[in-house]
Amino acid sequence: MILVLMGPPGSGKGTQGARISEVYGIPRISTGDTLREMAAAGTPLGLEAKKYSSQGLLVPDEIVVGLIKERIQADDCRKGFILDGFPRTVPQAEALDAMLQAAGREVNKVLNFEVDEEELVLRLSGRRVCTQCGATYHVKFMPPKVEGVCDACGGRLEQRADDAPESVRRRLVEYVQKTAPVLDYYRQKGNLEQVDATPDPDTIFARVRELIQGMSAVPVQ
User: Fold this and answer.
1) Which of 88, 105, 169, 209 is the catalytic position?
2) Long-range CB contacts (within 8 A, 24+) of 87-91
3) Would you say residue 9 lies in a domain?
4) Which CATH number characterizes residue 86's domain?
5) 13 tagged catalytic
């Protein structure tokens, strides 16, 4: 079972990816995590990617594709894997298809987690982070016991600059512009599934399981 997860910031795809990974026993591969892991391990591609990321630059497609290709050849990916954060462009999607086809494999499903823009703004702009220990809260969904004060260490809670409503809206516009062609690519291939990510996580996961039911990875007992 090979899945690609897509969705804007705040859609909860990371949470769902982690649950799929746990239940089906296949790894969730985050592009960002893979970049950091391979850079820390000192692999040639990892070190090359670090040259860009350390300067705040986008890592070129060919390096990202190479890192993903290296990662999905690992033993833990034999039964399948979940891609979160890749592909981000149509050339990356085409490169993924090519590398999978060469191995006699294919992307089974692309799950696109959809949430209304106003709900996403509420989710992201309500986040508060402790300036001392980094603990994360939400003014509506997970508030601290005392407003503005971290439960864990008593530190001051702040809203990150990129979580301000106007910043969130800009990020969402950018996300839609960048990912629309990728969604169209998979829609034309016939393996794109839309997932309503508005309900609670359990309801969303039940829908996810319906969509991937019958695929080759067998749930762990």
Assistant:
1) 88
2) 87/4, 87/182, 88/31, 88/178, 88/179, 88/182, 89/61, 89/178, 89/181, 89/182, 90/181, 90/182, 90/185, 91/61
3) yes
4) 3.40.50.300
5) yes
